[in-house]
Fold these 3 entries.
Entry 1:
Amino acid sequence: MGEKKIILGQFNTKSNLWLKPQVKEFIKNSNCKIAYDPFAGAGDLLTAVREQLGFRSLIGLDLDEALDWQVNDSLIEIPKIDGAIIITNPPYIAKQSASRKKIDLSMYFSTTKYDDIYLIALDRMLEAEDFVVAIIPESFINSNYKQKYRLSSITILEENPFEDTENPVCVACFDNRIKDYDEIKIYKNDKLINTLQDIMNIRIEPKNNINITFNTLKGWLGLRAIDSTDDIKFINFDFKENIKYDWKNRIKTSSRHLTLIDIGITDEFKNRFIDECNKIIHDIRIKSSDVLLTPFKGNTKSGKRRRRLDFRLARAIMEQAYENIIRSGKSE
């Protein structure tokens, strides 16, 4: 992948699968007559709305002088255009990733607390226009982005819309009205899942009231924290002996996919504790349609989005499992 493509975030859509019925309806209901892409790239999104929705007036901007658009750095400012709806796939690269790849984006990150370029892009877009449709990382759902209250809907795309990356993405639709989370709809592909408020109500937070150590060879509890691609091995807790993995040579302080955990559970209650942990994570996945778990690149063979369990939620799950056992009167 070329350096220019990475720096400019040039990942082009390969199909119109992002244009789900609910996204089309949102665009139509905006009553905007101009389709506006401030990160136009190859122009795929503008072409899609012209062909699918009949837009006749198309305006594109881009930082790349080699492209056939007006040159503009839309991470700094986006000109306002009356009667326009922004429809775009902005660049996204995390601050840490840019630093690791020696990509200098300090001129953008120096004036913000955001940790990814796409969040800066969202700010610029929402400052410029009332209506915005943006293909952005799915991790946005669990972010604390300040303009989330202007959301109308989020559509998770399980099928990859890109030709050169497998980043898990969603389509975020914003309008000019401030809302409560219970008005913001969450879709997975074409299906309405729930409201953002209902999803957030399922979240559990750690209390840090139990001594739990991750990534330690002293641990007796194994955690497979990521779904495999085979539709067989999913996120689960188990005795370390039951998870086939070279713990001794591969467990590191930075490990995030498989880990050993040390937590003080007496031998007689370890089986029940593991079962309780797996029940809690299963319930969270079912009730939230997996939305509360971190999306991971690629899908399973059946086309289901792979998920990763972050250690913060894993800690909360273990704390709750421990408390459940105590409440049941089966542990001390």
Entry 2:
Amino acid sequence: MNLYRKLFLFSSIILVSFQVSAAKTPSLEEMWQLIQQQQKTLEAQKAEIARLKQAARQNEEKIEATTVALEETENTYGKAAEWFNKTSIGAYGEMHYNNLDNKTKGLDDKKELDLHRFVMFLDHEFSDDLRFYSELEVEHSSSGDGENGEVAVEQAYIEYDLNDNHTAKAGMILMPFGILNETHEPTTFYGTERNVIETNIIPTTWNEGGIGLSSHFENGLSTDIYVTSGLYLKESKNFKIRKGRQGVSNAYADSLAYTGRIKYTAIPGLELSLTGMYQDDYNQDRTASSDSLTGYETHAVYSIDKFKVIALYANWSLDGDAAKALGADKQDGWYIEPSYKFTEKLGVFARYNEWDNTAGGNGDSKYKQTDFGLNYWLDEGVVLKADYQNQSAPNGENEYDGFNLGLGYQF
């Protein structure tokens, strides 16, 4: 019998002795039963203590596991929150109603309602110096066999700040030509449709795959130098610059393009810009001849109080006998656009345009168009548009007069 049991038995005997002194002396059998009951009570207490210790250990394990899970969850959600804070999603789009009469006999009028563009942005900031930008566009609301529209990536590139003044970019980038090519959201310009010069002569939206370096200086000068995939112009498409875009889709890159821009913005309200481009073979080595092209664009934007005026000129020169035979060896266009914003919500404009995609020929091939109308901004990101156009076209070509209505948004 171990010491613990001896002490218990001794205590029990003393207790029994006290009970004996107060009552009738119990028999040995009664004493033994009493001792057995005390033993059972002790065993039950020991078992309960053991159970409570085991429960405590399990609770400690659960608390520890919960703490670890909370730490992991906080880490996971912390990373997700950090990703979310550095990623931005946006969109812009525009719907147009065109009610245009074709003044040329026998040719169709243009009376259409069209969800012209639906574009989604997805941008991400990897660090203070490294960023990603992209746009995915659906044109004319649907795409596929027999449909009017298409789905296309407008831009997708990485931008890296080399220092405070110089930024490099690589990927699918918008060309630094004109005004609308880089900033073409519908809330930023007048008119339901993009102006005809920055559609037919400068092919907005024009993207290429390549690399670029942008530099900004304290004297108000900035420069851009790009080396990109080039245009692919064909006789079957009348050597039109707009139709020479390859969209960075298995694009021929036998002949790269070299583009440079210089911009001056030191005077408040004034922007002056000049862009030039050279490509040594717009046939992309697909013909026996190697025909080069050069192009340039210059524009001025001046704003004073509520008044603003834009003037832009663009020109292309193409080598090659085939282009010359069509008169497409010279292509140019210009426009001037004054506007006045009465309030933050209401503005009016007028625009005069001239352009010619076969200016190298001897015949009359020049288009002219006058536009005027208004923009009403319901909000900084939502605009209603209404304008009237009057067009003069070469003999036998489509010549549209009428009005356009538009709804545009951006966020």
Entry 3:
Amino acid sequence: MAQMLEIRWHGRGGQGSKTASILLGKVCSAADKYIQAFPEYGPERMGAPVIAYNRISDHRVTVHCQIEEPDLVVVLDPTLTATINVTEGLKEGGKVIINTDLPAGKMKEKLNFNGELYTIDANGISEKELGKAFPNTPMLGAVIKVTGMFTMDKFMEMIRKEFSTKFAHKPEVIEGNMNCIRRAFEEVKSE
């Protein structure tokens, strides 16, 4: 992992951008990383564009502001690409992951983007595993695969602890989310 990995999450209210950034932060913190996980608040409401951020480092994080030059951009709602330049400020060599059933090459054309881009049908995975479109959990699996910050087994072990606390009285939700992460890790695609 680079000295500090900065991630910008784009989604809509209710899709779990903030929750995904916080879950990732908790897992990284448990792995003795220094982290920041925070949303950008505005007049949020269900369906409105939302941005969340992560900073993950082996060293103390002393900067406290929005991330304007991310290493990774994660897009939970592909319709946002029509109105927001999700690649704006992306560092040279930065990566993009988009929740879509379209191939990566098609998304690169739509965005006029020549960099490293990955796609994953996070909505489809969560609908099959959870019965509803909750793209945030599968996107975590894609982030782990694309960044390589954890092995899949290590991440699954650590995220299970978080889910066991969050969904203590809903074991079926824990297993559904675990399946979402595993499938996304295996199914994320690039060109």
